Amino acid sequence: MGALAVGSIVDVVLLSFLVIVALAIVQMKDLLAVIMLTGIYGLLSASFFVTMDAVDVAFTEASVGAGIATLLMLITITMTGRAESPQRHKPLLALFVVSVTGCLLIYGTLDMPYFGSADAPIHHHVAPRYIQDSMQEVGVINIVTSVLASYRGFDTFGEAIVIFTAGIAVISLLSVVYCKETLKEFERVNRSLHDQHLILRVAIKILIPFILLFALYVQFHGDYGPGGGFQAGVIFSAGIILYSMLFGLSAARRIISHSIIKITAALGVLLYGSVGIVSFIKGGNFLDYSVLATNPIAGQHLGILLIEFGVGCTVASVMLIIFYNFADRSELGQNKEKGSV
Questions:
Q1: Domain boundaries, the chain
Q2: Rounded-to-integer distance, Cα 234 and Cα 305, Å
Q3: DSSP code at position 115
Q4: What protein family is recorded (predicted)?
Q5: pLDDT band at 140, cuts 50/70/90?
Q6: For a surface tag, which of 196, 228, 261, 335 has the fewest beta carbons within 10 Å of its beta carbon?
């Protein structure tokens, strides 16, 4: 009973912090402060998910909500400016729309079972199957991985395609083509700028190998603990983005060029789909990994390993595509102001 009371207090405190941070975000006019508070909101959300025993969701929220999203928003304000523009819209109309939408959402939850109720339909439908039979059918300790990569592999495949489509959309709308003279000018400016931050550059050089190594650990440890392709891809791309921010885009492109990123994004989705096609050819259903090896459990392990690797490649590549294109736009705008482009 004491542990339950402590857990309830922690939940109330975290939810209170979330409300306070949300109100502060609404009141802030400094966009840099808004981005920092948004990152804090993501970390608080991840902490709340941990207390709810949803560790995989917490991992995703920490890496995406507080990690890569913060980095992408930082590069975005270099194009838009740090200060919020004067008010040009009617906030009362927006407040009314949000309030009506919120009330409808709350009304839609009234028919849902109480939180934690043992009589909830999910506890009598799919949950017992996953909990009791996933180890025998899939052979993966982490039930979340079994559900995402095997039981609902179609949904995860769709999510990977959505991410890939987002990358294509960003390329189509924001891609910038530079001439060689412009690239040389960018490299000269970046070199002169980043030489001023020697301590940061040395610290980042030490940290980045560990960040990338941790991404590989998350990628291939999803069978046994929280992690998988989505989280690993975000962490890996965050390491490259951090390198780009300290050493410049020209240095990052020498490591991972834009063309390689585009090919990797497509290959990740292709690898995922190919696993389904191979399983179909071998006599099973689409994305039925059991037929990939003589032992069904070994086949499940092999299929999950391959599709998670495909997801990781696609996610990492699309995140870098978004960053590269936003950063290109930012550099183009800055150099136009200076009259160099």
A1: 1-85, 134-341
A2: 17
A3: T
A4: Belongs to the CPA3 antiporters (TC 2.A.63) subunit B family.
A5: confident
A6: 196
